[in-house]
Design goal:
It contains 16 helices and 2 strands. With 302 residues, the chain is an all-alpha fold. It holds the Pfam family Ank_2.
Length: 302
């Protein structure tokens, strides 16, 4: 007995079916095609996209339709003109992408695939997923490089900090080997020039107080702290400089409060490290001086 989806001809073609995630229409067109594998991997003429690209870029919940396309042989590693694969699109467009990510990985999607800007699926998930922890854990568990860098040399943690103050995820990523010393490029909106900074600078830029607190409890270089302080100074000017007749919103005021706290933490840590360094230097100088005196005294006695 034929499946109901195989007998009723739909009113839309397969491209439109992918666009609206119409499972019945997709099944019909693929079942009645002469070569399903070739048919399901055809490309459009605009962006060299496959049906998978269309489905995953146009739908917030593509799982069922995604399953149909993959069962008929859709290639999950196919790229469009931007180097984007279906896994990138799912991580970008789906608010709850976990099951779709798992399905694509099952059918051979590449967890470390980079698009034209060097973004991996992990970058997209960290940046755009409202609740990214489970998806991040799934991708890393499947082999995604937690320290993969994009064209601006930024890792997925930079993206996570742009998304929100997910301090629990920051802790998990640190425990999983995330490198906080990697420096990415920051664009200065006023000068148009780029400068370098670590994820500590990113946490400062977006006033992620909890995440910044966690990072400052780890080993942080003086250069990284100084870079973050410069970011704080620039960000403070931006938040304070409002037109005379324009009041600061409550969100801006809270952001400024967080920023000032972060800046004070950075300065305190820098001063503490400087004092500690001076004490250590003085101690070693004292030891060396004492050693030289003892050596001189020994030579004199002999």
């Amino acid at each position: 007995m034929d499946h109901p989806d195989h007998t009723t001809e739909p009113s839309i073609d397969i491209w439109q079916a992918a666009k609206v995630a119409d499972v019945s229409a997709l099944r019909y067109h693929l079942y009645h095609s002469k070569n399903a594998r070739e048919f399901v991997n055809q490309r459009d003429h605009e962006q060299d996209s496959t049906l998978l690209h269309i489905l995953c870029s146009q739908n917030r919940q593509p799982f069922q339709a995604l399953q149909v396309l993959l069962e008929y042989g859709a290639d999950p590693t196919a790229r469009n003109i931007y180097g984007v694969q279906a896994l990138h699109s799912v991580c970008l467009n789906c608010p709850t992408p976990l099951e779709s990510i798992r399905l694509l990985l099952k059918y051979g999607a590449t967890p470390n695939a980079k698009d034209g800007d060097g973004w991996t699926p992990l970058h997209y998930t960290a940046r755009f997923c409202p609740e990214p922890l489970q998806s991040i854990m799934l991708l890393v568990g499947a082999g995604a490089n937690i320290n993969a860098t994009d064209a601006s040399n930024k890792t997925p943690m930079f993206c996570l900090l742009a998304n929100g103050d997910f301090h629990v995820i920051v802790q998990w990523m640190l425990a999983s080997g995330a490198d906080t010393t990697i420096t990415g490029e920051f664009l200065d909106q006023k000068t148009g020039k780029t400068r370098l900074g670590t994820v500590l600078s990113q946490a400062t830029k977006y006033t992620r107080l909890e995440s910044a607190t966690i990072m400052l409890q780890t080993t942080v270089s003086k250069d990284a702290i100084k870079q973050a302080i410069k970011v704080a100074e620039s960000r403070e000017v931006t938040l304070r400089n409002k037109d005379a007749d324009e009041k600061q919103s409550e969100a801006q005021m809270k952001a400024l409060e967080r920023l000032l706290i972060i800046r004070s933490m950075l300065e305190a840590r820098l001063n503490k490290d400087t004092v500690t360094h001076r004490k250590r230097t003085s101690f070693f100088q004292f030891i060396n001086s004492s050693f030289r005196k003892e050596k001189t005294a020994t030579v004199t006695i002999q």
